Amino acid sequence: MEILYSSTRNASEKVTASQAILKGLADDGGLFVPERIPTLDVSFKELADMTYQQTAYEVMKLLLTDFTEEELKTCIERAYDSKFDVEEIAPLVEAQGAYYLELFHGSTIAFKDMALSILPHLLITSARKNQVKNDIVILTATSGDTGKAALAGFADVKGTKIVVFYPKHGVSPIQEKQMVTQKGDNTYVVGIEGNFDQAQTGVKQMFNDKEFAKLMDENGYQFSSANSINIGRLVPQIVYYVYAYAKLLKNGEIAEGDKINVVVPTGNFGNILAAYYAKNMGLPIQKLICASNENKVLFDFFNTGKYDKNREFILTSSPSMDILISSNLERLIYHIAGNDADKNAALMKALNTTGVYEITPDMREKLADFEGGYTSEEDTAKTIKDLYDATGYVIDTHTAVAAGVYNQYKEKTGDTTKTVIASTASPFKFTRSVMNAIDKKYDAMGDFELVDELSKIGNVAVPNAIEEIRTAPVLHDHVCEVEEMPQMVKDFLQIKK
Ligand SMILES: *Cc1c(COP(=O)(O)O)cnc(C)c1O
Prior knowledge:
Blueprint: E1 5-7, E2 10-15, H1 17-23, E3 32-34, H2 44-48, H3 52-63, H4 69-79, E4 92-95, E5 98-102, H5 112-116, H6 119-129, E6 135-141, H7 145-154, E7 160-167, H8 173-180, E8 187-192, H9 196-208, H10 210-218, E9 221-225, H11 231-250, E10 260-265, H12 270-280, E11 285-292, H13 297-304, E12 306-308, H14 329-336, H15 341-354, E13 356-358, H16 361-365, E14 370-374, H17 377-391, H18 397-413, E15 419-423, H19 431-438, H20 447-458, H21 464-469, E16 478-480, H22 485-493
Parallel strand pairs: 5-15, 6-7, 6-9, 7-8, 8-16, 10-11, 10-15, 11-14
Antiparallel strand pairs: 1-2, 1-3, 4-5, 12-13
Helix pairs in contact: 1-6, 3-4, 3-11, 4-6, 11-12, 17-18, 17-19
The protein binds pyridoxal-5'-phosphate.
C-alpha cells in the first residue's frame, strides 16, 4: 500500500517518498513524516536468515513505496558493498553483558555511513523518477561525522554537488582532516566561525529562502539535504535495529518475541528516532534509552516535558552529540501530539522565538517507552577505561556515553533485558580522547602515533579511512563567518549576484 509523506507543520501537502527525499525539508520548514507507520510483513524467523542487504529491502520497501523493487534493490546493492570492511555490515559484539551494534564499518568509520552510503543512490533515483533536470546541490551542516560521510557518498556522483559546513573549532583533528582532504570536483568544504547549531540554522535558512531557490533554478540547480532531516536517511537507519534483533534471535541470545532494550548516543535525534520507528513497525523493543553528553537538553526534556535550548553550549569529547536543537525530535513531537501538525507547528514556533516549549501531560504519557540519561566527561572517560581494563574492547567516546548511561540505568532499575548499544563510531576517529581516557601518558603523543598505539593495545587493524588521511594533501581551506554561508555557496556554484 502506498505511503505518502506530509510536513510535521502542515498536513495538507502530501508527497511521495521520492519527492520527500528530493526536497529534504518541507516548504514550511517542517520535516516529512509518513502518514502512517507500516508493519513488518516478514517474520523474525525469516529475517534471522537474511543478509543485511535482504533485511534492508524488507524494511525499506514498506516506507519507500514509490520505488520499484528493482530500483530499491539496485540502490541497496550499490550502498552496502565492499565499502564496508565486514560482510555483516553491522556486526554485534558482546562485552560485559551488552551487545554493541558496530555501525562504523563503512568508508568513514562512523554510523552516518549506514545511511549516507545509500542516500546518493536514493536521491539520483528519485530525481530520475520525478524528471528533475537541475543538478542537485546537497547542502549539509555537520557536527563532524555527517560531513565526511556525505562527501564520501556524493563525491563524483553525476548530477550532484555537495557543500559541507562544519564548526571550524568544534570537530576532532581526525574529523577535520578527513573532510578537508576530500577529493572530487563536485565537493566543497567550509569551516564556519560558529558552532553546529549555527551551521544547521544557516543551512535551514538557505533551504527556506524562496529567492535563493529561484536564483538556483535559473542557474540549473536545486538544493537537497543529506542531514538526518531527510527521510532518505532516516529510513535506512531503521534497518540495523531489525537486523540486530534478527541476529540475536539467530544466535540464540533471545527467543522470538522477547523484548530488547536499545541505547542510543544521541545528538540530532535521528538514530534513536529510527529505533522508535522500528518499534512502531513491530520490533519488540521495551525501552528506548536516549543517552546525552553534558549538552543534556534531551535528558531534561524526557524528565520534565520541557525542551529548553537556552543554555551554555558545551564542547565535549563526543562532538557529534554537541547539539542543543535536536532536529528530529520534531518528528517525535508530531507523532506524540497524535500526528497533529498544528499543535507541533505551535511548539516549534515557540522554540524558534523563545527557545523553549513544553508538551502536555497527554503527550508526556506517550513517552513512557523512552528513558533519558547523560554522562559527564569524567564518566565517559571512566566508562572507556573500565570496559577496556575488564575486556580489552575499546569503544569511542560517543559509544561510551551510551554505555555509561546504560550502566546507570541498570543500576537504577535492575532491568536485565538484553540490551543493544548503538556503537556509532570507531575509536580510531576520536583517538586522542579515547587513549587519554585509558591512560593520561598518551597525551604526549602525536595524532598518528596514537593511532598506531590504539591499534596495538586494542588489537585491531588501523581502518582504511585513517590510513588514507595520514599523508593526504589538504584540498579545502575555506573559512567563513556564519552570515557569509550563502555567499560561499554562490561562489562555489559560480552564481553571480
Ligand atoms: C551523528 C552521531 C551521533 C548522533 O546521532 P543522531 O542521529 O544525530 O542523534 C552519535 N555518535 C556519532 C559518532 C555520530 O556521528
